[in-house]
Design a protein that fits this description.
Structural class: mainly alpha
Shape: globular
Helix content: 40-55%
Distance between the termini: 37 Å
Largest sheet: 3 strands, antiparallel
Order of helices and strands: EEHHHHEEEHHHHH
Strand order of the largest sheet: 3-4-5
Number of helices: 9
Number of strands: 5
């Protein structure tokens, strides 16, 4: 009933979330007229909500992480056009990827970093979580090395107005945005690990897997590390480890 619809001569498919949203709208629509006694029955109330299945967890193992970072550094499997840009953004991209994989922070938290959020002495960054809270997140030497290499380059750049404090800049010298980071993760993921659909959640899932291995399954610790308000979300990331 809601799985397919047509628009401008094309057929589109609703996923489970889309079906649930549209059915909820229909229920509200009919419920309004039912309460106003304009109709005698609410037919939408008789339709069951579709069961929502969990998305597959796509994560990288240690070897795949190494392959991904090697590809980000070398750019060997990129197209000729991509290689032109890679030469200009290699250090930035390496810093972003190692930071995401080494800390599990969200992409929005990564692009929101300012220069004064970095604590180089203690290998830490101040992360602005959802809801406005601020926490210190610490990382290992590999992340520190990649970040330092990029910062040497970053401090020579001339940011556009409004982006002077941003850590990560686009090729236009503006604060890089979430979509751009999502695209670079997919780009390197596709060339390095073509059999997996690598995206930004893969970096958090990969971090979660390694965290749980090294902490004997500390779910509460993972909840804190990933900044989840609900521990059930952390348990989702922990599945299949």
């Amino acid at each position: 009933y809601l799985k397919f619809y047509h628009h401008n001569g094309k057929e589109y498919t609703n996923d489970e979330r889309g079906q649930m949203r549209k059915l909820a709208c229909l229920r509200s629509f009919y419920n309004y007229f039912f309460r106003k006694e304009i109709i005698e029955k609410n037919p939408a109330a008789l339709v069951k909500m579709p069961k929502q299945h969990e998305k597959n967890i796509v994560r990288l193992d240690v070897d795949e992480i190494a392959i991904l970072l090697d590809e980000a550094e070398s750019g060997e499997k990129l197209t000729e056009r991509q290689k032109i840009y890679h030469n200009k953004t290699k250090k930035r991209d390496m810093a972003i990827l190692t930071l995401l994989l080494g800390t599990g922070i969200r992409v929005s938290e990564c692009v929101g970093l300012d220069l004064n959020d970095i604590d180089p002495k203690n290998n830490g960054i101040k992360v602005h979580r959802k809801g406005g809270s601020e926490v210190m997140v610490y990382f290992g030497d590999e992340v520190a090395e990649a970040l330092d290499a990029y910062l040497d380059e970053r401090l020579e750049m001339e940011p556009q107005e409004g982006s002077t404090e941003a850590v990560f800049l686009s090729m236009q010298n503006r604060r890089i945005n979430v979509r751009s980071v999502e695209n670079l993760v997919k780009k390197y993921g596709k060339s390095a690990v073509p059999l997996k659909n690598i995206h930004c959640h893969s970096t958090r899932s990969s971090f979660a897997m390694e965290f749980l291995k090294n902490s004997n399954g500390d779910i509460e610790g993972l909840q804190s590390a990933l900044g989840h308000k609900n521990i059930a979300t952390s348990q989702f990331y922990a599945r299949s480890t």
